[in-house]
Design brief:
225 residues; alpha+beta; Alpha-Beta Plaits; 2 domains; nine-stranded antiparallel β-sheet
Length: 225
Amino acid sequence: MGNLFLMTTIVDRKVINKYLELYRENNLNVMFLSLGFGTAANDILDYLGLESTEKAVAMSVVDTNDWLTTKKQLEKKLKIDAPGGGIAFTIPLSSVGGIKTLQFLLEKDNYQKEEESTLQNTTHELIIVIAEQGYTDMIMDAARGAGAYGGTVIHAKGTGQEVAEKFMGVTLAAEKEIIYIVTKTEQKNPIMQAIMHNAGVHTKAKAIAFSLPVTDTAGLRLIED
């Protein structure tokens, strides 16, 4: 078996049950589901055939074989590449907290994780932006100006405000917005630089950003073509 990945699926809330059903058919029963909303501009929504910005975000741990099987079915059965289909992508996991946790996440008793390898030549990155609540437009205006198509927002509550004030010199509110932006690798730096310049800790948004390599995607073909 291959290495482990966090598979993240972002689709319209109205169709999430179809995806969850497909995943359960593939024995991916341990999933983490949250709600969010899209940030694409109206012209992008019209181009992609999207009517709603309300999103569902599903996360599950998979190995290489699980992902390859699931990706084929996402494209063939659910037409994830079609306008309004959504996106699914994988991010490598570097570690898991113990064998019991691993068996629970994968529902496999005999899984043997391969040795970690260095990631090279990944074509996409996931930019994660954490900011004060209410400043999504400021962040996405900056991101789009640097080439981003759109993102997905999740409402959250932050902790560690005292640490942030000590090391960053800012006071942070508990209410947060987490923005996921999937982009091509070569666009990552300009987008992150634009976000930090226009919505960084020196602004009211007080945004911080980091990125993770995306090893594979399903559902980005239309945008890239």
